[in-house]
Design a protein that fits this description.
Blueprint lengths: L1 H27 L7 H21 L13 H27 L12 H24 L5 H18 L1 H16 L8 H24 L7 H25 L7 H29 L7 H23 L7 E4 L2 E4 L2
Antiparallel strand pairs: 1-2
Helix pairs in contact: 1-2, 1-3, 2-3, 2-6, 3-6, 3-9, 4-5, 5-6, 7-8, 7-9, 8-9, 8-10, 9-10
């Protein structure tokens, strides 16, 4: 009961941040700001994603309700709060940087409509294809959805990113999530470490500016390295029966998910500071995925079979009492 009360208090705080962001987008933006209308659309799309995505996946439980453990609840609350903090920071940056703060400097209904149509197609593709063609393979379904989502990110990058991250946070912490608790915890913690290291590096180079090498090579490399132990930890705690092939596949899968979580967390942490580095919300998950796979592959090839009822110390199995 205490955990539920604390969770709903946290959810109320996130809702208050959302209301504040919506108010800022409509009241605090000057009428002369060319980005004012775009900012309002961005915030409204993010708010709609929080309401619509659970409704879309209600039959399968893709986006909720939240899993009944402390890690999932903390990650969901912290992730949602971080997204709204990024939205508020974007509003502040657009307001204080004149025209062309973040975006093209204007609003186009044609571009927004096309981008949202592509985004809606990416969300609806899995369900529609399953209804129309029952035998379609999972890889085909998700490949088409990924293509539509990538096209939406090109047309309306910030709006699409907001929906993707909202969906990712809700899906990762839902009861039907494929992320094991240790996978979620390891990915989040290593992502926070990578984000903190990136902030320290950026602060050390404030006077020199942020170069392309730092943005596209150094920070993603830090993210990938931080995701390696996340993938290793996820692989070490994966149980998948006695079949070695099945166990290896399960370990690699959990490592991939841990890496994605780590990269997404690092990208959000880095974007909370210099908002202009929102590109890291794209490169972060990609780099984290590579690091997670590397860590999981090493673990799958070098770790012994995990024991759910005990542990191994100094190479000797020790039964838990």
């Amino acid at each position: 009961m205490t955990r539920r009360i604390a969770y709903w208090l946290g959810a109320g705080s996130v809702a208050a941040m959302a209301a504040w962001a919506i108010w800022l987008s409509w009241r605090a933006s000057p009428s002369a700001d060319a980005e004012a209308t775009t900012d309002r659309i961005r915030i409204l799309i993010a708010a709609a994603a929080f309401l619509v995505l659970p409704w879309i996946g209600r039959s399968r439980g893709w986006f909720g309700p939240v899993r009944d453990d402390v890690v999932a609840r903390l990650v969901r609350l912290a992730g949602c709060a971080a997204l709204w903090a990024i939205g508020i920071a974007v509003l502040w940056l657009d307001r204080h940087s004149g025209p062309n703060g973040i975006g093209a400097g204007g609003f186009s209904w044609l571009r927004e409509t096309a981008g949202l149509a592509l985004l809606g197609g990416a969300l609806a593709a899995p369900g529609l294809l399953r209804v129309r063609w029952h035998r379609v393979q999972d890889t085909t379904v998700w490949a088409l959805a990924a293509i539509a989502g990538a096209a939406a990110c090109v047309v309306v990058p910030f709006q699409a990113l907001a929906v993707v991250y909202v969906g990712g946070i809700l899906a990762a912490t839902a009861r039907r999530s494929r992320l094991a608790p240790v996978t979620l915890a390891a990915g989040t913690l290593t992502g926070l470490v990578a984000g903190a290291a990136g902030h320290w590096l950026l602060a050390a180079r404030t006077s020199e500016g942020v170069g392309i090498l730092l943005l596209l090579v150094v920070l993603p490399a830090i993210t990938a390295l931080a995701a390696v132990p996340a993938g290793l930890a996820a692989a070490a705690r994966t149980h998948a029966g006695e079949d070695p092939g099945r166990l290896r596949s399960a370990r690699i899968r959990q490592g991939m998910l841990a890496g994605l979580t780590s990269g997404a967390a690092a990208g959000m942490v880095l974007t909370l500071g210099p908002v202009g580095l929102g590109l890291l919300m794209v490169t972060g998950p990609a780099a984290g995925l590579a690091g997670g796979i590397a860590g999981a592959a090493f673990g799958a090839d070098h770790l012994g079979r995990p024991r759910p009822d005990g542990n191994r110390g100094a190479g000797v199995y020790v039964a838990s009492s």
